[in-house]
Amino acid sequence: MKIYTKTGDKGTTSLFGGTRVPKYHLRIESYGTVDELNSYIGLVRDQAIDNHSKESLLKIQNELFTLGAMLATPPEKETLKNGKERLNIPKIDAKSIQFLEHQIDEMNNSLPVMTHFILPGGHQTVSFCHVARCVCRRAERLSVALHDEEGIDPNIIMYLNRLSDYLFVLARKLTKYLQAEEVKWIPNKL
């Protein structure tokens, strides 16, 4: 199988179902940013972190592929002419969101209570986690805009919102795990 098709050489690409759109289309920006997020999560997973976090991140990466496929399918193409779903895979749903919530609660139980804002950084791995969190927020903003414009499954937005919270708490957990310093934000300090 060739990796290049040349069908995008004029600045368009196909959505799932065959509709061609410009490569700057909001739907492409949305799932492209989810793909970028997935790459950053892979970068975090490749660091020297605990196995439980690695396993959770691998599950999240797989779910992000699903989420990307959901975003790549326009509403009018979700159902085939025979009434069956075009995207014949398990979707992001309430269970996916509950998994993230459970992981957040579990990590929070082992962390000191947060009493201040925290600056991203303290350790390279923690910084990667914060970058992933910021990309996740961008993916969420783009998905909300797409939802307002065309409509998408609301679970996508909830999942991305919860995932950014997960990544923030994971950054705190990794700070503790790596024995790094949590740097407090001190307003007006030069």
CATH topology: Hypothetical Protein Ta1238, Chain: A
When the domains are counted, the total is: 1
Strand composition percent: under 5%
What letter string, H or E per element, gives the SSE order?
Answer: EEHHHHH
- CATH architecture label: Up-down Bundle
Q: Total helix count? A: 5
Shape: elongated
Give a written overview of the molecule.
- Helix content is 56%, strand content 3%.
- It is built from five helices and two strands, in the order E-E-H-H-H-H-H.
- It has helices at 26-45, 51-71, 94-108, 124-149, 154-177; strands spanning 12-14, 20-22.
- It has a two-stranded antiparallel ribbon with strand order 1-2.
- Strand 1 (12-14) and strand 2 (20-22) form a beta hairpin.
- The termini are far apart.
Jot down its keywords:
190 residues, mainly alpha, Hypothetical Protein Ta1238, Chain: A, 5 helices
Quick overview:
The protein has 190 residues and is mainly α.
Topology:
Layout: E1 12-14, E2 20-22, H1 26-45, H2 51-71, H3 94-108, H4 124-149, H5 154-177
Antiparallel strand pairs: 1-2
Helix pairs in contact: 1-2, 1-4, 3-5, 4-5
